[in-house]
Specification:
Distance between the termini of chain A: 44 Å
Shape of chain A: elongated
Largest sheet of chain A: 3 strands, antiparallel
Structural class of chain A: mainly alpha
Order of helices and strands of chain A: HHHEHHEEH
Strand order of the largest sheet of chain A: 1-3-2
Oligomer: homodimer
Radius of gyration of chain A: 21 Å
Largest interface: A-B, 68 and 68 residues
Number of strands of chain A: 3
DNA sequence: CTTTCATATGAATTGTTATTCATATGTTAT
DNA sequence: ATAACATATGAATAACAATTCATATGAAAG
């Protein structure tokens, strides 16, 4: 029995039949955390700007910083976050590290978001 | 001249030619904020769970809370956030308020996110 | 190998946000 | 009207995250 409710409203909708279905169809807790974490990465203006910069071209850290008028340190911290989420990659070129978009997934997700806020 | 750099690395890549292009193609600051705010909404496990619940069926607040084993208050606060972002809508039915997905945009965005973390 | 340049990182600070608790609002039924 | 129920909300607390500053790492050039 699904009697592990922490509260008990007495409303009589047809929703209760869905409770078990919800619990069955809900992705694993781990996936839900990963998913929220991924969107968190998109949920910061600085990181969004960095991604827009990389839409134009792969670029080294200092030029990204220059483009956005922000400090190298702030950008570097955020690049690390983007990299951890596998949204960007990097490679060395002489003294510089060049960052680039990992795949077109990023464009799609940001594009969908833009669609939503502009409609 | 774009000499409003706050720092000056001397790296000599071909990136500087992109700086002006970046500034031209970058969406308005306001849109970037709205976009980040939208993704922030997706960036919380509780809200993701609520959306997954609503994937199954429109539902009243107390049944959403029951489904997720969380308090009515916590759910209500998050429903407000989701509503403000126009991801969900609501309607009254007797004593209850029924919440539902605003459109299939939500499914698409979450779907894209899932694709990314599962690949 | 020493200096310079590009990037990364740790600690501290500040701002933001999710949840809880208590209570208010508003609807329905008696 | 009053009682019971469903939902919303404000204030407080606690956890988290973005930026800054100072400094460390690490490659390259002399």
């Amino acid at each position: 029995m699904s009697e592990d409710k922490i509260q008990d409203c007495k409303c009589e909708h047809n929703h209760l039949e869905f409770v078990d279905k919800v619990r069955h169809d809900m992705p694993a807790e781990e996936h839900l955390y990963d998913l929220a974490d991924l969107f968190k990465v998109f949920g910061d203006t600085t990181r969004i700007k960095i991604l827009y910069v990389l839409f134009e071209s792969e670029m080294c850290v200092c030029d990204i910083a220059d483009s956005l008028g922000m400090t190298q340190s702030a950008i570097s911290h955020q690049l690390k976050v983007l990299k951890q989420s596998k949204l960007i990659g990097n490679k060395r070129d002489g003294k510089s590290i060049i960052y680039y978009l990992a795949d077109d997934h990023v464009r799609t997700i940001i594009g969908m978001g833009m669609d939503h806020i502009l409609e």
